[in-house]
Amino acid sequence: MRSASRLSLNLARLVCAAAVAAAAAAPLLLSQNDVVLLTEFMSMLVLAIMWNLLAGYADIVTVGQHAFVGVGAYAFFGFTALAGLDPYLSIPLAGVAALAIAVPAMALVFRLRTAYLAIGTWVVAEVLMLIAGKLDAFGGGSGTSLPISIVLSFGRTRGDRLAVIYWLAFALAATAMLATYVLLRSRIGVGLTAMRDNEEGAAAVGVNITYARILCFLGTAPFLGMAGAIITLQKLRIAPPASFSITDWTVFVIFNVVIGGIGSFEGPIIGTIVYFVLRQYLSGLGPVHLILLGSFSIITILVERRGLWGLVRRMLDDDLLPIAHKPSPAFRASALLLRAARR
Amino acid sequence: MLVPWINQLLQGILLGGLYTMFATGLSLSAGVMRFVNIAHGDFIVLACFALLVLTTALGLNPVVATLIVLPFAFLFGFGLQRFLLQRVVGQNVLLVILVTFGLSIIIENGLLEGFGADTRKVSGGWLETATVALGQGINVGLFQVFTFIAAVALVAVLDLLLYRTGIGAKIRAVSDDVAAADLIGLSSGRIYAVAMGISFVTVGIAAGFMSIWTNFDPASGPTRLLIAFEVVVLGGLGSLWGSLAGGIVLGIAQSIGGQWDITWQMLAGHIIFLLVLAVRPQGLFPRY
Amino acid sequence: MITATTPKPLLTLSGVCVFYGNFRAIDQIDIAVGAGEIVSIIGANGAGKTTLLKAIIGQADRVEGRICFAGAEILGSTTAAIVRSGIMLVPEGRRLFPSLTVEENLQLGWEVGRRGQIGFDDVFRLFPVLREQRRQRAGWLSGGQQQMVALGRALLANPRLLLCDEISLGLAPQVVAELYALIPAIKARGIGILIVEQDLERSLSVADRFYCLLEGRVSLAGRPAEVTHETVIRHYFGL
Ligand SMILES: Nc1ncnc2c1ncn2[C@@H]1O[C@H](COP(=O)(O)OP(=O)(O)OP(=O)(O)O)[C@@H](O)[C@H]1O
Ligand SMILES: [Mg+2]
């Protein structure tokens, strides 16, 4: 029984590695519409990974994640369209801008205990969105479009452009995954996991939890900001309610992670995949779509709070990516594949 | 020259009354159960829609409609706590936040599905338009004055309930130490449920006043939640009279901000909140 | 091993096991307490004394065996029902509600308990200092006074069986002596008392019988007069 389970686990890891390789080559294999969809998937994946890191590990339950996505979008627009900087350079700069906003935001909301911090982050997001609506250079309350010259700098034809934007999104998602993986395997990650499982645990591991939480909060901001920039590249315009959309960049993200499995590395990935599959069938339902997702996530919390991955995990020996253990040979193989795929 | 500002100041204070009403229920649940109900604002809006149906479909007087809603609100809050929130409370704040967050989205979209996105209002009849002249060209709405008085009364009644009654002592006891309460046979689950029921009665009352005072639509909940939350933090967590002060501060900030430039109304409120959070995180009137 | 000595014990535990997850904190314990009897449970840190009391009061997650009180099975009942049937706990560390006044703390005991003869006046007679302090917040009292409130709160529930968990914890010897001096008066009302202490001398001095716990099992039981100090020490530490 156990060896069968171990076999299927290794098989699953191989499938994952193959999927990563295929994803890297997606624009060569898929139609333009599918590439667009996959780009969206990668952006959502980044958002899900970041939210999971904060809520699932660092005890920072934010409901204001859309703040940094919006800041990234606006900063990207500012750097390219207004300041005339290189469009590719503007993407990491958007991440820097999000980081710059994250510092004072953190100073404020960290004054609140976890339960209140959630709404504190929401207030911050609301303030940033309202301010964005007051920036005339950015089109004020109704927003504005990305100048065509900037759009073209990512590729002359639509196909080229979509491929480039996709690869940017893919690279960001891969970096996000790798960064979280490294973080969670570090001493800090072990400390955070210990804290999540048991209050005194972290102290025993000897990790400064305040420092770890600060690191996580500030670490997620640039990723969210860069995701905001890539999302802007896809949507080709900025506008306060769309760039700072709580529904798109926070609500869906939370539901994805909760359903996939909060507090696990695999959870956000599974959740985002499930979300994109479900969306094909549900998005025509309008508000019912969200009602269903909301109900699913509440049921998930009541039944198995570690989500779908928690359910699967009951049947497996090990995590797909062994965060808590020494890497197995199979993992090393898939990591090699992963690295090869990125080249 | 000065008159419009004085006028706005007065309007702000009165608006603070409404905001206090939004906040009392949240203050109670946050103070006692140590979690923030993210769906608080949506429940206020849900109650507004209930009042809308009662007043338009059945043609009831808004006061009567509110009185009808209150017992149901209590039962609803009691049941919600007993059968849903109690399952996740006390383990991990994360779970409560997520469950109430899910509820918030369900309510918003449920209302959207049922009533559409139009903004609505409940008619308050003559009371809505009656004004009191204070001289110098300053007029305040009778309904607004009435709301403010009701808010003060609500805070006073809740204060008496918490500090002068048996159930109040039990609520404060579980708020002090749930595990100790369980050890001596106070059923914390029931007491939590009663507290949530009371919190929902205040939600019903707040809805009664809000539905006449302002427009609302299915997406109005989050704004109300943020206001309630800011009022609670401004006033000092768990302090009821503090919420009245917090409500007034926020009301004045919004009103003055709005007088300066109407688009600054909401922003001015948020900024005052963040400023106070920065310099005085314990709030204006901390309980301890 | 001694089980019931009084003809009809008030409380009997038979074959009780208590688990935290897979860890067996209490293992196959048989204990009895009669009306008006003082039974002492002694044992080192982590022996399972508090766990045992929690199981009796209905606050342990997983309990096996039988717990009978006044002829009825109480295992599986809610704490509220158990308290109403006449068992009340003085918790380890007192566990008062610090922001409530002394009077309110006492009142809660009265409200959760069964109706009986013990009223506020009796408590104030036992602990006169509480009458003066009754409007004071419990959190502001000295440790000794807090322990008096905790005892008073429990007595106001009019228990037939009182469970005391380390009432001497953190108190000056003088204060402990005063508290223990009151135990016979409580016993005289026909109340059974189960006293948990780490302090051997103190608790054996008032007890009619005792049980010594070692890693969740009864390592020794008997009457204080029947055993030597050395025997107790040996079973206390499991030497
Ligand atoms: N909530 C808990 N979860 C897991 N294990 C527990 C828990 N509470 C107690 N234990 C374990 O059960 C055993 C018995 O603990 P208990 O508190 O009953 O001991 P005790 O005899 O009262 O000790 P002390 O004299 O220190 O109060 C100990 O090994 C303790 O570590
Ligand atoms: Mg103990």
Can you characterise this structure?
The complex is a heterotrimer of chains A (about 350), B (about 290) and C (about 240). Chain A has helices spanning about 1-25, 25-30, 30-55, 65-80, 85-110, 115-130, 150, 160-185, 185-195, 200-205, 210-235, 240-245, 245-260, 265-280, 285-305, 305-315, 330-340, and strands at about 145, 235-240. Chain A is mostly helical and about 350 residues long. Chain A has one domain. In chain A, helix 5 (about 85-110) crosses helix 11 and helix 9 (about 185-195) packs antiparallel against helix 10. Chain A starts with a helix and ends with a helix. Residues about 325-330 of chain A have low confidence and may be disordered. With about 290 residues, chain B is mainly alpha-helical. Chain B contains 12 helices and 2 strands; from the N terminus they run αααααββααααααα. In chain B, helix 3 (about 60-90) runs antiparallel to helix 9. The longest helix of chain B is centred in the first third of the chain and has 31 residues, at about 5-35. In chain C, the strands form 2 sheets. In chain C, strands 6-7-8-3-9-10 form a 6-stranded mixed sheet, sandwiched between helices. Chain C has a 4-stranded antiparallel sheet with strand order 2-1-4-5, with helices on one face. Chain C has helices at about 50-55, 80-85, 100-110, 120-125, 130, 145-155, 175-180, 185-190, 200-205, 230-235; strands at about 10-20, 25-35, 40-45, 60-70, 70-75, 85-90, 160-165, 190-195, 210-215, 215-220. Chain C is an alpha/beta fold. Chain C contains 10 helices and 10 strands. Classes of the chains: A mainly alpha (about 350), B mainly alpha (about 290), C alpha/beta (about 240). Chains in contact: A-B, B-C. The interface of A and B includes residues 111, 246, 255 and 286 of A. Adenosine-5'-triphosphate (ATP) binds near residues 25, 48 and 49 of chain C.
